[in-house]
């Protein structure tokens, strides 16, 4: 039988390593989302610059 979720959460709250692992996981997730958004923005800018350069050569 599986333990109740509240029991698992209580054990994680008492365990400092568990709390630190959750914090680091959330931090990495936030940084990943930020990096993807930044790369998307930069990629669009580079595409625009290269498109302008290509049309100027033609």
Structural class: mainly alpha
- List how many beta strands DSSP finds: 0
Order of helices and strands: HH
When the domains are counted, the total is: 1
**Can you summarize the main beta sheet?**
none
pLDDT < 50 stretches: none
- How far do the termini sit from each other? 70 Å
Task: Count up the helices.
Answer: 2
Shape: rod-shaped
| Percentage of β-strand residues | under 5%
Average per-residue pLDDT, rounded, comes to: 84
| Estimated helix fraction | over 70%
- From the alpha carbons, calculate the radius of gyration and give it in angstroms: 23 Å
Tell me what the structure shows:
There is one protein chain. With 58 residues, the chain is mainly alpha-helical. It has one domain. The chain is 90% helix and 0% strand. The protein has two helices and no strands. The longest helix has 42 residues, at 16-57.
Secondary-structure topology with pairs:
Blueprint (H helix, E strand, L loop, with lengths): L4 H10 L1 H42 L1
Give a quick precis of the structure.
The chain is built from two helices and no strands. The protein is an all-alpha fold.
């Amino acid at each position: 039988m599986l333990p109740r979720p509240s029991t698992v959460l209580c054990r994680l709250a008492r365990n400092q390593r568990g709390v630190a692992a959750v914090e680091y996981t959330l931090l990495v997730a936030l940084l990943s989302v930020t990096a993807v958004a930044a790369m998307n923005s930069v990629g669009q800018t580079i595409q625009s610059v290269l498109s302008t350069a290509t049309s100027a050569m033609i």
